[in-house]
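Q: Please design a sequence for this.
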């Protein structure tokens, strides 16, 4: 698979001429979902879900489909009948030739006073895991973890412990739009030194084979 990092939490995966896009939200590029054959969205927060961008991508490709949880699906299903699929923990499906397993149910705690919303993670082809906004540990080995490296709901020690729990071969940073260049060496040193897995970072628009 070819993995391309887009800004913040958005990732594009390409295989056999098909493109799968995860979480093309408001912190990502305007065209982050353009050309997608399938789109997966982990939850409803604006940095992961941008309704206008999803509508544009689905309009541009009448064969494109969306898989997501109910809170997002209900905003789009009427406009795209038969193309918006609601999923939850334990579900499996095939999207644009990619085999996907759904893991997780709730967003991480931001603050005890803020009610938790639903959140799902996606394990793609049994190899690449995007957890959304949670530290979900799949009951399946993970080769490539897309690591939410910096968020209002986490601290660095939790990020390190998450890598240790999942035990991926490699972890690529995502959820990094709020992380300044000044802080990156600190995160690189601690996550890479303590996590126990290869820790990698792609600049937006760059790619790697996974």
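A: Design:
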């Amino acid at each position: 698979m070819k993995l391309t990092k887009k800004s913040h939490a958005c990732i594009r995966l390409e295989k056999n001429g098909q493109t799968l896009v995860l979480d093309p939200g408001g912190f990502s590029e305007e065209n982050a979902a353009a050309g997608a054959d399938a789109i997966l969205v982990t939850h409803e927060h604006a940095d992961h879900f941008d309704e206008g961008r999803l509508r544009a991508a689905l309009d541009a490709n009448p064969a494109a489909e969306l898989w997501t949880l109910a809170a997002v699906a209900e905003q789009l299903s009427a406009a795209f009948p038969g193309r918006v699929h609601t999923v939850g923990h334990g579900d499996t499906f095939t999207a644009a030739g990619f085999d996907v397993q759904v893991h997780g149910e709730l967003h991480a705690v931001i603050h005890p006073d803020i009610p938790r919303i639903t959140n799902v993670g996606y394990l793609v082809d049994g190899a690449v895991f995007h957890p959304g906004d949670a530290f979900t540990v799949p009951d399946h080995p993970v080769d490539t973890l897309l690591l939410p490296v910096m968020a209002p709901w986490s601290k660095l020690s939790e990020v390190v412990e998450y890598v240790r729990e999942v035990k991926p071969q490699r972890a690529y940073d995502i959820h990094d739009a709020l992380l300044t260049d000044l802080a990156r060496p600190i995160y690189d040193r601690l996550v890479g030194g303590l996590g126990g897995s290869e820790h990698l970072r792609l600049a937006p628009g760059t790619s790697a084979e996974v």
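Q: Thanks. Anything notable?
A: The mean pLDDT is 97. The helical segments are 51-60, 70-76, 156-166, 184-194.
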